[in-house]
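Question (not urgent): is this output format expected?
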Amino acid sequence: MYISTLDSLKVGKTVVYFRKRKGISQEVLSGLADIGRSHLSAIERGERKPTLETLYRICNALDIKMSTFIIKLEELL
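Got this back:
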């Protein structure tokens, strides 16, 4: 099934899933990923979609491969 746009709420839920699994706060994750906490919060709420660079930084900070993130995201889609 073709989906014309990526659901930003599900992207955010995927970030939250991995962040909570790692047991860290938004503040810690944003510091590790070198992005603003308010930016991370907006991503988690589905208000913003991360760029590929931002997603890469988040995944590195969470110690996961981007492919692992995408697999989880696809489960939600």
